[in-house]
Amino acid sequence: MKKDTMRFSSKLIHAGEHKDQYGSAIVPIYQTSTFAFDNAEQGARRFAGEESGYIYTRIGNPTIKALEKTVASLENGYDGIATSSGMGAVSTVYMALLSNGAHIVSHDAIYGPARGIIETIFPKFGVEATYIDASKIENIEKSIRPNTKMIYIETPANPTMDIIDIRATAEIAHKHGLPLVVDNTFCSPYLQRPLDLGADIVLHSMTKFINGHADVVGGIIVAKEKSYYDTLRSVMVNLGFNIDPHQAFLAHRGLKTLAVRIDRAQENAIKVADFLEKHPKVAWVKFPGLKSHQHYELGKKQMDGPGCMISFELKGGLTAGKVLMDNVEFALLAVSLGGVETLIQHPASMTHSKMSKENRFKAGITDGLVRYSVGIENIEDIIEDLEQALNKI
Ligand code: LCS
């Protein structure tokens, strides 16, 4: 079968595969920093880009390339650029698209450090930012200035679960000649493919669903067009944001089970969200699969499923939330998400603690918001664990 006609689950197993001389079923770990040339002419040709082939692992490596090609195929993009972490991917995109005096428009609730570096590091390069509620589409166009260089969104957003209309945002971006960058970490390409909806660049923290086993830190960027790809790759290579071959191998291995992992975790998440919404001690639940989610219809339109991430607040606010977090015995009290294990964390004091209280509140990240990443364990165990912890409040 031709690889470009394969369906998603088959691509997870077969896209981007590398053929070696031994017929290895799995891409080997090319644990090497450098690659020997046959002769000086060949070395010169490779550096000049006149001959394909590997040079040095920061620039490229067969294990890393297999992972990049697989994710690019899943996202229907031109090619991928794997990075040392999700923040490595975010930083590569910022460094590639922002210049002195540039302005970025973004959603107010995104992963804390993705906003934090724009507000603390990039001002020294003269970069300005406007953070708005991008789920209200009219806010985006109003925020564009003559010096705006990109629109950057996460959907669903971490941790508010706001859903932003990718197609409508892309139309606005393109009307103004701007690229749209989408962080697709919360969905993975299994549930959402932003490039198909008009985005120009998609990125992931591979630490989450793509690897899925809480044993890798990595990131990846996929560009729709070669021109963005070339610019992004050059920034990644020269700033040294590369992933290492062993991490790439693990992420590639984890990726193979993405569909089955998400199917199971999502099935669990639907039941957990329903349980929480009906529980008398719960004030509100944000989960794209609940009809009460303010962007439920949009989520159904642009996502292939509601995902595995739930945010909620207890009626007793932060005090009650702390009792819950300290009493779950099964869910790990830990940051990160998208792994096979269920995790619970408190954004205001953990992942988003570096945001000012004012910005957090404006973005809807209340003090009592608890974030829950549903794993693939037995659903009865997950719910019994929540129930016994809620009973302690
Ligand atoms: N983008 C999103 C949406 C994220 O959730 C994260 C990390 C990143 C980018 C950065 O990826 P990293 O460098 O960690 O691979 N989110 C985390 C979270 O919510 N808890 O711990 C990390």
SSE layout and pairings?
Layout lengths: L7 H7 L25 H9 L13 H13 L4 E5 L2 H12 L5 E5 L4 H9 L7 E5 L5 H6 L4 E7 L11 H10 L4 E4 L4 H4 L9 E5 L13 E5 L2 H14 L5 H11 L2 H21 L3 E5 L9 H7 L6 E6 L2 H11 L4 E2 L9 E3 L11 H6 L6 E5 L5 H13 L2
Parallel strand pairs: 2-3, 2-4, 4-5, 5-6, 10-11
Antiparallel strand pairs: 1-7, 6-7, 8-9, 9-12, 11-12
Mind explaining what this structure looks like?
By secondary structure, this protein is an alpha/beta fold. The protein contains 15 helices and 12 strands. It has helices spanning 8-14, 40-48, 62-74, 86-97, 112-120, 138-143, 166-175, 188-191, 226-239, 245-255, 258-278, 296-302, 317-327, 357-362, 379-391, and strands spanning 79-83, 103-107, 128-132, 148-154, 180-183, 201-205, 219-223, 282-286, 309-314, 332-333, 343-345, 369-373. Helix 5 (112-120) links the parallel strand 2 and strand 3 (128-132). Helix 13 (317-327) crosses helix 15. The longest helix has 21 residues, at 258-278. The protein is globular.
Shape: globular
The CATH H-level homologous superfamily of the largest domain: Type I PLP-dependent aspartate aminotransferase-like (Major domain)
- What is the C-alpha radius of gyration, as a whole number of Å? 21 Å
What order do the strands of the largest sheet run in, or round the barrel if closed?
Answer: 1-7-6-5-4-2-3
| Biggest pleated-sheet summary | 7 strands, mixed
Which residues sit in consecutive blocks of at least 5 with pLDDT less than 50? none
Bound molecules: ligand LCS
Mean pLDDT: 96
Query: Structural class of the helices, strands and pairings?
Result: alpha/beta
CATH class of the largest domain: Alpha Beta
Strand content: 5-15%
